[in-house]
């Protein structure tokens, strides 16, 4: 393999830059040329492709977002769009592609692989909702952003003796909510993977109040309901008032944590290794701190699971 391409696609995640840097440097280390494809699959169709050098990825390891930009591209979901992308790859002599993103991105990588173009997927999303890896690039940073915000909210919650509901991202996965809840000692955590009774949440609020607690924090994953909806339900059921904070896109930005930079560096380099070995249609991941790779089709058909023991623990610790 003499020339490879790299793109980032779907929602951006902190650490994507560290992954790009790792792909570029590792490839050049092995005397392989690297081409950066801007705006994900849209840039692939449009031929928005440029050669990257060692210096192209200097001073980005600490930056959030993605130097190659990202986009959602409906056209690439069509056969015609994919063929246009392949045309561009051929034009530039690119023999293999590394795609950093979530499951939609892997779907695109799968389609290209089926059409004879070897692709490797690197999981980059703050949601941590990809099977076959313990962590995705961006999850740790987003989690720390949430913790930082909740710590601040706690101060005001205590001063005013209030209940705060924090709505966090995660799409259909509860990982961010669960980890944030455990890390911040939330009274209640609502995640899509577990059914939490409203009465239980209200009981916890009342018990806390009776023993003189000055504040209560409830974390709700966006996959369950909005923070506003939960506040309304609690008010209607128990007449308890709460304040809602929606952290929104602040969770996606910021300088990547040390863990995300290391994870991205390891996964990006491993993806290059796989292309060199002649592998295709794989997704790289980390399991029990070991680099692994899986058939991308299996990953697309599998379901992400969350450690419900952690959820039970959070309940035990917030009695
Ligand atoms: P996130 O988890 O952050 O949303 P994602 O990679 O799942 O990331 P999507 O918007 O679902 O984000 O997908 C990114 C891009 O991948 C799409 O805009 C599209 O270009 C491509 N893609 C998604 N599904 C397919 C498909 N079925 N066939 C080909 N390409 C696809």
UniProtKB/TrEMBL annotation:
Residues that, per the record, bind ATP: 11, 72-73, 102-105
GO biological process: canonical glycolysis; fructose 1,6-bisphosphate metabolic process; fructose 6-phosphate metabolic process
Protein residues bound to Mg(2+): 103
Cofactor(s) needed: Mg(2+)
CDD domains: Bacterial_PFK
One Pfam entry name: PFK
Catalytic activity: beta-D-fructose 6-phosphate + ATP = beta-D-fructose 1,6-bisphosphate + ADP + H(+)
PANTHER family associated with the record: ATP-DEPENDENT 6-PHOSPHOFRUCTOKINASE, PHOSPHOFRUCTOKINASE
Descriptive protein name: ATP-dependent 6-phosphofructokinase
Source organism of this protein record: Halobacillus litoralis
Lineage: Bacteria, Bacillati, Bacillota, Bacilli, Bacillales
Gene: pfkA
């Amino acid at each position: 393999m003499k020339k490879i391409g790299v793109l980032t696609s779907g929602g951006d995640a902190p650490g994507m830059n560290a992954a790009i840097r790792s792909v570029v440097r590792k490839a050049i280390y092995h005397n392989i040329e690297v081409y950066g494809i801007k705006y994900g699959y849209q840039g692939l169709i449009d031929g928005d492709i440029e050669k990257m050098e060692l210096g192209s990825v200097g001073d980005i390891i600490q930056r959030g977002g993605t130097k190659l930009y990202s986009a959602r591209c409906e056209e690439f979901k069509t056969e015609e769009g994919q063929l246009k992308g392949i045309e561009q790859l051929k034009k530039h002599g690119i023999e293999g592609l590394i795609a950093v993103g979530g499951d939609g991105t892997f779907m695109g990588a799968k389609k290209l692989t089926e059409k004879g173009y070897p692709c490797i997927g690197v999981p980059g999303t703050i949601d941590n909702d990809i099977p076959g890896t313990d962590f995705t690039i961006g999850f740790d940073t987003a989690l720390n952003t949430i913790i930082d915000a909740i710590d601040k909210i706690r101060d005001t919650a205590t001063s005013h003796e209030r209940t705060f509901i924090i709505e966090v991202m995660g799409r259909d996965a509860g990982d961010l909510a669960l980890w944030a809840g455990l890390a911040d000692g939330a009274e209640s955590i609502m995640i899509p993977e577990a059914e939490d009774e409203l009465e239980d949440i209200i009981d916890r609020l009342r018990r806390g109040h009776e023993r003189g607690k000055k504040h209560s924090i409830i974390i709700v994953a966006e996959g369950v309901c909005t923070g506003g909806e939960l506040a309304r339900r609690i008010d209607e059921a128990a007449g308890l008032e709460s304040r809602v904070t929606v952290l929104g896109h602040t969770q996606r930005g910021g300088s990547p944590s040390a863990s995300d930079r290391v994870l991205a560096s390891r996964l990006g380099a491993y993806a290059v290794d796989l292309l060199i070995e002649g592998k295709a249609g794989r997704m790289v991941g980390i399991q029990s701190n070991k680099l692994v790779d899986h058939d991308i089709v299996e990953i697309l058909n599998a379901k992400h699971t969350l450690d419900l023991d952690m959820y039970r623990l959070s309940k035990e610790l917030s009695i």
